[in-house]
Structure formats: structure tokens, C-alpha cells
Amino acid sequence: MISVVARVPLAARAVPYLPLGLIAALGASLAYVVRLPCRTGGWNDQVTTYTNFCYTDIYPLFFDRGLSTQNPYFAQVPFDKQVEYPVVLGEVMQVISWVVRWVEDDVVGQAVKFYDLTVVLLGACLVIGVLLMAAVAGPTRRWDALWYAISPAVVLAAYINWDLVAGALSMGMLLAWARQRQVLAGVLLGLAIATKFYPLMFAGALFLLTVRTAKWRPFLVTMGSAAGAWLVVNLPFMLLAWEGWRRFYVFSAERGVDWGSPWLFFQTKGWHILGDTDVSTLGMVSLALMCAGIAVLAVAAPRRPRLAQLCFLALAAFMMTNKVWSPQFVLWLVPFAVLARPNWKPLALWQLAELWYFAAIWLYLLAQPPLDRDDLGIGDDTYFTAVWGRIITIAIMMAFVVRDILRPEKDVVRQADLDDQTGGVFAGAPDRFTLATVLR
After folding, report:
1. Dihedral, CA atoms, 355, 358, 359, 363, nearest 10 degrees?
2. pLDDT of residue 12
3. Phi-psi map region of 428: left, alpha, beta (phi>0 left; psi -120 to 50 alpha)
4. What is the reported pLDDT for 65?
5. Is 30 left (phi over 0), alpha (psi -120 to 50) or beta?
6. Residue 142's closest CA among 332, 342, 334?
7. Could you give the CA distance from residue 101 to residue 97 in angstroms, rounded to a whole number?
8. What is Dmax (Cα atoms) for the chain?
9. pLDDT in tens, 326-357
10. Burial of 390 by CB count in 10 Å (0-12 exposed, 13-18 middle, 19+ buried)?
């Protein structure tokens, strides 16, 4: 007897995602509205920009990086004026600048259109990222993607920079891995790393689960595809525009401590060791220690951790030890935090901390040189409450995820009769290496 399984039409399968897509589009629209005070002329006054909480990198970089006249990486500008982003973002900026130069003659009009078209792209990336996240979460937890679609912190940070492009690629990578399409997962991971550097942390999460399950072939195929995709998009610029291409890597290595980083607190307060040691060394050592702890956790847990849990822990560790922690970095963490532990209470607490930081950074900058508007801004101590608010609330979420890994019965995702909705080849795989087997 032959059984026939009817395939559900694509349109019917898409119906559950339609409300999420519409809500994400609403979130993207609200993010545009938030920046209307700047969009209508406020960009030309730094005080107005900060008091209206509508700052974005998109508009000023059109002028400051020579996009109004030249191509990124090939521009004949001083080294410190080269585009300081990996090549995928540089080429996104390039294509949009070509379009606006073609349709608009006035340079100010070009900059406004550059912002508008970039926002259209970023809004589309938000919608795509939300839909991909919903697909990753699966039918039992699809609505968790609302946190990414319309949470206040996402709306406020959406158009500060180009981070939503990397977010869509990262969610695509996660879905491809979950569907066991390792080549596609690797290509998307390589492109994500060539867009923003933080997705590199996800390779470590895949490696740890590979060590535990011995699923080496899928891992190596994915990493090979990622390396190949990264090389394909980077190699032309490495060969033809070396100085412009290396600007991102030199800038990342030489950049000092900056806004949002806990190291700024230690330097400002003059702490011994934490405040006077080279911040690059401090960051690398502290990140290495946290990653070592995550590695031990991954092989010591009584049950294999879920991929999203390890991705969240690795990414949070990267952010907490970084030299800079910009307001838009919240966009990196939201989808992974929700997939790791979709419990609304710690998520809501963290979002409140992010909202406070979003307000605090602009108020703090008002009181800093060259503006020195103490009547409008806030001082060091008030600002650092916001810095530590983010750190503490994320640490709380990390602690809950660690608890869920050590006590899998507490994991709300696995209580829905799931092993790992993002696991791909790891889902249901038996352990081949754990700390217990070594200590036996």
C-alpha cells in the first residue's frame, strides 16, 4: 500500500506568517517616525539631534565618507575617512549612493534620499528577519518573534546604523542550519560576517555542539562554505583596494574604549588594572575566559544545550567584553535572547534597561565637549547607571539560560516536546563526548 502525503500549498503555509510580517512592517514604520524630527532638518543641529533622540549614522556618513562623490574603499580620501565597515555593508552603501546620485543633483537632497532608501532596505531586513525568526522558532513558538518585530528597543535602534542587514543574514543562517542545508547556512554565515563581525561568534557555538555530537561533516561543510563566501566578497577589494578594505580591521584593532562599554566606567573612575590596562588586552582576555566557561558548560551539561542558547551566551559575552557597546547592538541580541529563553519577565526587564540607555547616551553626549550643555544633559554617574543596567539585566538572562542548560526540565522551549528547534543535525543526536565521559 502506497501512502500519499499531500503537500500544503505555499500560500496556505504563508498565512500564519502574514500577521507577523505586518506587525514587523509597523515596527519598521514606527522606527521611521521616531527619526522624523531629524529627517525634516534636525540633523543639521547636533543639540536638536540629541534632544529629539533621533541620531543616525546614515545621513552624516554620506558626506563624511565621500559617498556623495566617490566609491567606498576606492575613495581618494585620508585613511581615517575610509568606510569603516566590512565589504557587504560598504557595497550596500555604494549601490544606494549610486541610485541617489543618479536621481538627484543637489547634494543635500542626495543625502536625504540616501537615508530614505537605506531605511527602506533596513525596514525590509527587519521584516525578513522577523519572518525567518518565526520560522526558526517553529509553530509552537512562532509568536515569540514579536519581540524582534516591535519591541520598543528595536524600534528606537533600528535605523541608527546598518545592523539589521546582518540580523536578516544571521536568522537566515540559523533557519538554513535548522533545515539541514549546511552549504546555504555557511554561505549566509560568511556573508553575515562580511557585513558585521559579530556573527563569527556563532561558529563557536556550532563547534561546541559538534564536539559533543561528533557531527563533523555538516560542521566542516558549513565552515568551508562560510569561508568561501567570505573570501568571494572580500578578495576583489583585498586585491584592488587594499587600503580601503583594511580600514575596518585597523579601526577595530586600534579603537580605544568608547561609549557603552564597561571599560569606559573603569577608565573614567580610575580603577587600578581594569581602568589603566590596555583595553584590547582586557577585552580579549575577558572574552576568552567567558568563552572557556561556555565551552565547559556545553560539554558538562546533563543534556546537549540548544544551539540558540549557546549562540546567545557567546554573543552576550562578546558584547559585554567589547571596547564599544553602541545603542544599536541591541538588534544583535534580541532574536537570540528570545530564542534562547522566551520568558517575558527578564526580557521585559532588559528592554527597560535598553530604553534607559538609549535615552541616557544622547543626554550624556549633550553634556560632553564640544556641546557642554550641562543644562540639557546628564553627568557621569547618571550615565553609568544605564551602562550597568544593560550589563546586569543581560547577566540575569545569561544566568537563567545557564540554569536551563544545567536543568533542562526548566527550559520552556523543551517543555513543548521539542529537542532543539534550531538544532538541525544536532536535534536528537546522541552524545559522543561529554565531561562525564572524560572523568569516568
Report:
1. 160
2. 65
3. left
4. 87
5. alpha
6. 342
7. 6
8. 82
9. 999 999 999 999 999 999 999 999 999 999 99
10. buried
Distance (Å, whole) CA 370 – CA 228: 45
Quickly tell me which residue has 532596505 as its cell. 121
Within 8 A by CB and 6+ apart from 335, the residues are 129, 133, 145, 147, 148, 167, 170, 171
The Cα 181–Cα 221 span in angstroms is 10
Task: Decide: 40 and 154 in contact? Cβ < 8 Å.
Answer: no
108 phi, psi to nearest 5 deg = -70, -40
User: pTM of the prediction?
Assistant: 0.94
Q: Tell me: the pLDDT tens digits for 119-159? A: 999 999 999 999 999 999 998 899 999 999 999 999 999 99
Q: How far apart, in whole angstroms, are the C-alpha atoms of residue 313 and residue 202?
A: 10
Query: How many helices, marked H, and strands, marked E, lie in the chain?
Result: 21, 0
Question: Which segments of 214-304 does DSSP mark as H helices, in order?
Answer: 216-240, 242-254, 262-269, 279-300
- CA 214 vs. chain centroid, Å, equals 29
Residue for cell digits 539585566?
Answer: 393
- Mean of pLDDT values over 4-30: 81
Q: How confident is the model at residue 3 (pLDDT cuts 50, 70, 90)?
A: very low
Residue with cell 536551563: 404
Q: pLDDT tens across 219-231, in order?
A: 999 999 999 999 9
Position 259, amino acid: W
**How many Å apart are CA 20 and CA 25, to the nearest integer?**
9
pLDDT at 7: 62
d(CA 398, CA 333): 12
